[in-house]
Amino acid sequence: MSQATSSIASSSTVSKLAGTLSRRDFVRGGTVVATGLVIGIGLTGCKPGNEPAREMKTIEANAWLRIGTDDSITFLCDRSEMGQGVFTALPMLLAEELGVAVDRIKVEFAPAGDVYINNLLGTQITGGSTSIRDAWEKLRRAGAQARMMLVGTAAEQWKTPPETCRVEDGVIISSHGKRLSFGAVAEAAASRPLPADVPLKAAADYVVIGKPQKRLDTPAKVDGSAVYGIDVQLDGMLYGALAQSPVLLGTVKSYQDDKAKTMPGVRAVVPTSSGIVVVADSWWRAKQGRDALEIVWSNGANATLSDATIMRGLRKAATGKAQVARADGDANAALKSAARVVRADYELPLLAHATLEPQNCTADVKADSCDLYVPTQIQQVAQATAANAAGLQTSQVRVHTTFLGGGFGRRLEVDFIPAAVEASKAVGQPVKLLWTREDDMTHDAYRPPAFDQCAAGFDDQGKLVSWHLHLTSPSITARMFPAVVENAIDPFAIEAAANYPYDVPNVLVEYVPAEIGIHVGYWRSVSHALNCFVAESFMDELAAAARKDPVQFRTELLGKQPRYREVLQTAVREARYGQAPAGRFHGVAVMEGYGTYMAQVAEISLQDGKVQVHRITCVADCGQVVNPDIVTAQIESSIVFGLSAALWGEINVAGGRVQQTNFDRYRIASMNDVPKISTYVLPSDEAPGGIGEPATALVAPALCNAIVAATGRRVRSLPLTRHKLA
Predict the structure, then answer these.
(1) pLDDT at 340 over 50
(2) Treating both helix axes as pointing N-terminal to C-terminal, what angle do 418-427 and 379-390 enclose, rounded to 10 degrees?
(3) DSSP label at 460?
(4) Cβ proximity of 643 and 669 under 8 Å
(5) Which architecture does CATH list for 307-351+446-723?
(6) Do residues 427 and 279 touch, judged by C-beta distance below 8 A?
(7) Could you report how far apart the first and last alpha carbons of the chain are, in Å?
(8) Cα separation of 541 and 714, whole Å?
(9) How far apart are CA 326 and CA 226, in angstroms?
(10) What 3-state DSSP class applies to 705?
């Protein structure tokens, strides 16, 4: 990673780097934003055709909503769309209270700005399955405020009480049948005061929320008009290919570029903070020029790094001082006095994000500005990083978010941004920097490895009286947001562990942050995928020790957890747990993550010693559902993602070099690998939980618990290929 990347440290640092964009800055950029319902008017365009151009005014109802005098409605989406459906689900929240059909709303990406901060995560960011949870009240209130102002304006013109008026698909209708469209009153509504009291609909009155809605971004993705980062085209644009050290975090010692500079189409060779960029008039020519560079690398401390040294380091670190994530009773004392103690160690590997779209960034740097076209999950950090690389103020950088061809946490990183900015600044033209698949696979910020130790004790009556989980893994947050963990435990390292749900009187969950010398990053479901595998696998080991069925064992310990019990019981019923066809076997796992309660049952068989996954049954209680179709799709997507990791996912390091360079050695599930997935979403009046990630975490433990049922063999490390089971 570049120096610019590593300097971005914490939420407070991000705020400092990103700055606070003023209202004036946004006006200059063509968008007026404010935290409240402050309405401004700006010229946005002209009507097409042969008629004379005329002014069309757009009302900025708030940071997210524009209403045009031509009745157009535009939603400025402050979250990144990477396939998870926010371009549809978020407008649904707005439409519910605004009183319009969802397909009336045009969606655009919002700029970078403090007003778009994700309140659950502290900066403008798409991650942690927070998009709906953060927007749940925010966007409904924005829609309600705009509707009240528009209705109030119409009612004033009609000299009738606003409460006697209603809204039908963007048209205000009086009790006497008079009608005015939103566009007809939008300009006048701009002068009305912000409503102080904004009542929101009860769930029983929803007409949009909770109903299936076709995705608004599908047509553009089908007809090819959707613009991903890799699709960006600018006038005068050149292309860049980046040479990076083959050893992780290595640096350039020296280089010769004479041959590269003479190659057709090559315009420049630019040393950057992360390597050497060859700039050319096509990407292929840039890559050919890159391949012609003669570079001597300084391998640094990672020259001898390997899988073995990484795991030895984790095991050694595990003996050091741990941070306490949870302490109920006295788990250690209860273990010492237990009639029977069960212990087990678990290991998990590095994993790549493997997004379909490789990392890329297009930068257009001028003397006093920078336009950044980038598929990013973290706009303000991208903005600050570009400003740092260009030597500009943050307010001088405009971030144009594109569609993301997969994120999974990879595009929370900004390591692909500085080189594009530095190259553009050097050549004085826009530069699109594109990584190859091999670049992407071998220079990822990988899912952390882990070494975890479990211990539990039973009393002489067979009651589980102690549970001890000792976690050791690198802290992602310590690198990206160190202020968060300066005097506290990393909250993104203890997920699905500190919230251990079972009724055990003595519980101790500890965490040891252990550096391994390379960058690790947030990976879909983050530490849920690490810790759920360990905790739920170990629960099956304890069930076996107690000579109880795994479902029975869990159920008896979930008496105080009704939402856990319900998802578990429903999954067991729908999967016909324990009634698998001959030769097939079931395994189960439960977890709460991101405010969603979930259970999975895996149904497998073994063919020639290899695991065949026939069916995954998943039950989710994710609170109130905005779009059930998107929820189902997200669960299915997460399961396929988790299945790939459980069966084959592993990044190996030898001599500091990643061994997997493409999908031929880093396998992901193909269509023929995907089992039947049965998804059930329980009705709920609770606030929405996150749904983009939790299902990923349960696949591995459910699968491995099924393997025990099939073979009696306990798998304590992943992937299954390590054990010749896949």
Answers:
(1) yes
(2) 40
(3) T
(4) yes
(5) 2-Layer Sandwich (3.30)
(6) yes
(7) 34
(8) 8
(9) 46
(10) helix
